[in-house]
């Protein structure tokens, strides 16, 4: 869910945010929610999914045939909303339905032991939390620094990517916030500070 480009991450979070039919499955102690309108299609890809409008008329009966009746658990919607919040998204306000999938004994359980290595093809699900970045803020900070210093270089060691790597290093520099984001306990808007 959280690996890939910004567009891939947005693509993955949108069906979760907008969905109304989900397959709920447990990884470790956390319930995850897979939207039926995406997961219910064989060999589905981002490109194919974008090209076709899917409404669940085909997938929902097929999923019911595989997993049985819809779950009768009033807490699932609250857990789903918490899951969306953990992904940094707010779900649409609509009635939802869920199927519960037990994956005990499948590869997900086996992945809890990582000392054995990972054979090729093993199913691995990862969840990553990342801090949002603003490319406009980065560009603004670079321009301010170049205006002040005529070039980009590391203030700590004076390394200059352009001098070392020529055209490949043009306009490249690693920038760090003066206030460490990891120490921020709440969201705040930052201005470029050099």
Q: Which terms summarize this structure?
A:
194 residues, alpha+beta, 2 domains, three-stranded mixed β-sheet, 8 helices, 3 strands, 35% helix, 9% strand, elongated
Description:
The chain has 194 residues and is an alpha+beta fold. It folds into 2 domains: 105 residues, no CATH class; 49 residues, no CATH class. The chain contains 8 helices and 3 strands; from the N terminus they run αββααααβααα. Strands 2-1-3 form a 3-stranded mixed sheet, with helices on both faces. The longest helix has 15 residues. The protein is elongated. It starts with 5 loop residues before the first helix and ends in a 29-residue tail after the last helix. The model has no long low-confidence stretch (mean pLDDT 76).
The averaged pLDDT comes out at: 76
Which structural class do the helices and strands define? alpha+beta
Helix and strand sequence: HEEHHHHEHHH
**Number of structural units classed as domains:** 2
- Radius of gyration equals 22 Å
Write the layout of secondary structure elements.
Elements: H1 6-18, E1 21-27, E2 30-35, H2 36-39, H3 46-51, H4 59-67, H5 75-86, E3 97-101, H6 107-110, H7 135-149, H8 161-165
Parallel strand pairs: 1-3
Antiparallel strand pairs: 1-2
Quick synopsis:
The chain is of the alpha+beta class and about 190 residues long. About 35% of the residues lie in helices and about 10% in strands. The protein has helices at about 5-20, 35-40, 45-50, 60-65, 75-85, 105-110, 135-150, 160-165, and strands at about 20-25, 30-35, 95-100.
């Amino acid at each position: 869910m959280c690996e890939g480009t910004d567009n891939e991450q947005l693509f993955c979070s949108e069906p979760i945010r907008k969905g109304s039919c989900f397959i709920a499955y447990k990884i470790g102690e956390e319930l995850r929610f897979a939207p039926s309108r995406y997961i219910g299609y064989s060999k589905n890809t981002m490109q194919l999914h974008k090209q076709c409008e899917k409404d669940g008329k085909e997938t929902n009966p097929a999923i019911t045939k595989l997993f049985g009746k819809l779950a009768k658990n009033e807490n699932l919607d609250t857990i789903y909303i918490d899951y969306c919040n953990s992904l940094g998204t707010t779900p649409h306000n609509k009635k939802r339905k869920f199927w519960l999938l037990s994956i005990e004994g499948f590869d997900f359980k086996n992945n809890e032991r990582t000392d054995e290595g990972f054979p090729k093809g093993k199913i691995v699900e990862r969840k990553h939390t990342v801090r949002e970045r603003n490319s406009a803020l980065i560009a603004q900070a670079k321009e301010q620094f170049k205006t002040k210093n005529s070039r980009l270089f590391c203030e700590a060691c004076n390394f200059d990517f352009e001098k070392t790597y020529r055209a490949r290093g043009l306009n490249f520099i690693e920038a760090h916030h003066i206030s460490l984001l990891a120490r921020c306990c709440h969201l705040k808007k930052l201005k470029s500070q050099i």
